[in-house]
Amino acid sequence: MAAPEPEAKPPSREPPPGPEPNAPAAAGSQDLQPWEQHAAVINLPRYDYRASGSLLLRSHSGFLITCPIKREKSATKEAISILEEYIFHAKHHVSEQAEPCDVENAKKRKFCSLASEYSEKAVTDGNSISVSESTGSIGDSSSPQSKTGENAGSASNLSLVKLSRSGLLFFKFPSGGLHVVEMLTEIFHSLSSGKLKSPQWCHRIFPIQETCVLSEKDLHDTVSKLFLDFSRSKNNQDEPVKFAVAYNRRGIDETEMKPQKNGNEGSNQQALMDREQCFKVVAAAVKSVAENSVVDLKSPEVAVLVEMLPVSGVPVGSSVAGVSVLPAELISTKPRLCVRPLASDAKATKKK
């Protein structure tokens, strides 16, 4: 007798899988890679860690910006948004006075030289390194979030330099001789006309026309060159020039007596130029260009600002300074000789 066959079970009818509720969101998130999404939210340039050696070898133009302590990132974003609108003025002036090669070719040569140098180092050390990460230039043309156009291309000429003091930002160009004073003048005109909103985090912008090693000879040569350019732009060169000098060491006075790791306490102090010595060197440089110049601290026609740059990584015993020759409309004499603040209200002045 054959065994009874088992009853066939009816096939289970499961409902077809419906569309996932987060499907559109997931599809949208796949448009950008995770690191690209991060860059879209936090778009800050990397530090140029090679700047300490570059500043000791040749002159650079740039901007030294003051901001509140622990607000450097916010001020960096704000500074980039301000500067990128006016950098094309400096690029235009440089292209006019450049020799056979233009600015773009110079930038390409610099990039190629950096690339070959880093390639050699990578072969020697057995490590690969990205040139764009190490140079710290602003702007990344390969990023999907990068800006296009003249301003974005010009902004990539600036690099962010790491400083050893809080509340300061320093952006430098690959070379010196740029018309950063004219750029700051345009910024103040835009602020006064309402075209540019008063910044929240950036207090003052110091235009650095030239950098130099802080020594008597280098400082004298730099001031003479800049003051000669200023005197040539004057309408009446026969009248005596009323000038004033400001020397700011930006906290170096308080830290110069701290013991160094290598135990050489006197080398850093010896390299620092005191105020009296700085004033004598600058005055002699001005007199060498304009013999009829006179010192006027209350209403100077022009001010020579010497800013100590606390660049991180500068060897002990070396110091870098930024020098500017500014007209009267860009400076304030009270309570001390300084570049004008970007915000004219009393609250912003107290923050400085």
TrEMBL record:
Transmembrane segments: none annotated. InterPro entries: THUMPD1-like (IPR040183). Residues 1-31, 128-153 are annotated as: Disordered. Residues 13-22 have a biased composition (Pro residues). Residues 1-12 have a biased composition (Basic and acidic residues). Residues 130-146 have a biased composition (Low complexity). PANTHER family: OS02G0672400 PROTEIN (PTHR13452:SF13), THUMP DOMAIN CONTAINING PROTEIN 1-RELATED (PTHR13452). This is THUMP domain-containing protein. It comes from Urochloa decumbens. The lineage of its organism: Eukaryota, Viridiplantae, Streptophyta, Embryophyta, Tracheophyta.
